Amino acid sequence: MNERPLILVSNDDGYQAKGINCLVSVLREFGDVVVVAPHIGRSGKGCGITSEVPVKLTKISSEEGLEIYSCTGTPCDCVKIACHAVVPRRPSLVVGGINHGDNSAVNAHYSGTMGVVLEGCMKGIPSIAFSLCSHDADADFTPTYDVIRKVVAQVLERGLPAGSCLNVNFPNSPSYAGVRVCRQAAGTWVNEWEAHIHPRGGEWWWLTGEFAVEDKDPQADRVALDSNYVAITPTTIDFTDYRLLKEMQEWEL
Amino acid sequence: MNERPLILVSNDDGYQAKGINCLVSVLREFGDVVVVAPHIGRSGKGCGITSEVPVKLTKISSEEGLEIYSCTGTPCDCVKIACHAVVPRRPSLVVGGINHGDNSAVNAHYSGTMGVVLEGCMKGIPSIAFSLCSHDADADFTPTYDVIRKVVAQVLERGLPAGSCLNVNFPNSPSYAGVRVCRQAAGTWVNEWEAHIHPRGGEWWWLTGEFAVEDKDPQADRVALDSNYVAITPTTIDFTDYRLLKEMQEWEL
User: Fold this and answer.
1) A6-186+216-250 CATH, one of 3.90.1200.10, 3.40.630.30, 3.40.1210.10, 3.40.50.12780
2) What is the pLDDT of residue B2?
3) Which segments within chain B are labelled E, that is strand?
4) Which of A137, B68, B120, B154 has its CA 20 to 30 A from that of B235?
5) Which residues of B touch A57 (CB under 8 A)?
């Protein structure tokens, strides 16, 4: 058996988004690709799962080395159902993206692209998220390809530690100052809601806001992006706070 | 000014769930309570947010020391909109729960109750999630009250480090072997999908499955729960993998 690596791809912008199709074109250089992605945009779903309604899985297309499915579930659901009902063998890699928008700093918590990758990681498969800091549906993803190739090649060769995955964010720029391995930047969303009046009366609220970076460390992912570096943030599914765990031994409980 | 602490409460089972109402009854001993919780059950929403439709906020009731609102958004949205448009002053505490169901191990990633608490933490407010390992809508929450009182009192007195919050899970038991400060247990979901045929044909998939614990460490939260201990898992919003960050300095990127 001399099988090519199998690469499972999903995203949160839907299977028709430009970002995922660009990603697939690069990943096909490395192996056979199976796409199982949301049937519509499912941005901001984090690690959400669908427990109260069933989901539908639809085969969209099939050609040598590439199968594409859509799923009515969340990004996490897509990885779960792909592993259960779609992939012909265990994937060597789960890849999320390329997201249309920034997933650095705490935004990783809200991100469906990171949902894909955390789910892949929970299943013990090396997993990588790629995101471009542009919400433009027709953004130019070609500048990202070289770094994607390098990261994918390294992960296929080296693997990743159990419970660890990568969150890669690209500045929206035709070329980069370099690649930086980063930590998650501190920051918070402010001015998050805008009230609108419904045509028939009553207030409805739109989630909006600005992200306030509270970090100046050049190794913080959002700061690196602002200096035109590609930011690679190694991420763990174990979010135990081990320092606080130690301190709490003194608490009276 | 000698104001009582303000405690913001939310959940993912909806404002009418028994768990949140039991929680509120205990928290009123400590301060004024504002509830902003989903109008219906929103389990499994993780840190999901609502960006594609506006959300509605509805005042349900108001009495001395207790205001209750429902919101059509996710658990995270509830905390966001509460902080923006509801609370009369900065909350001293954000509390999520009491969840009807286990949120230990990697389930914390899928949990809307943890979404509440991670969001509170992102806003710099000490935040605590409480969950009972029972999905029964009429579960008995009274055994949890003493530990809830102790944890809330300690957090109000000591605070929590910036970026840290607590994930507290209770065994479904009338009394406990003790309280243990834990780390997140390793484990994974298996047999996750069940295919059903729609009355008009076509396959639909229900998310189900069993959680396989891959941990024997008595300090792992799921293991502690199985030994009838209350498990308190200190949790960080910074899920950078600092060990991998160091190793990756050697990668060719």
Assistant:
1) 3.40.1210.10
2) 55
3) 6-10, 32-38, 57-63, 66-71, 93-100, 127-132, 164-170, 178-181, 187-190, 193-197, 203-207, 210-213, 229-236
4) B68
5) 203, 205
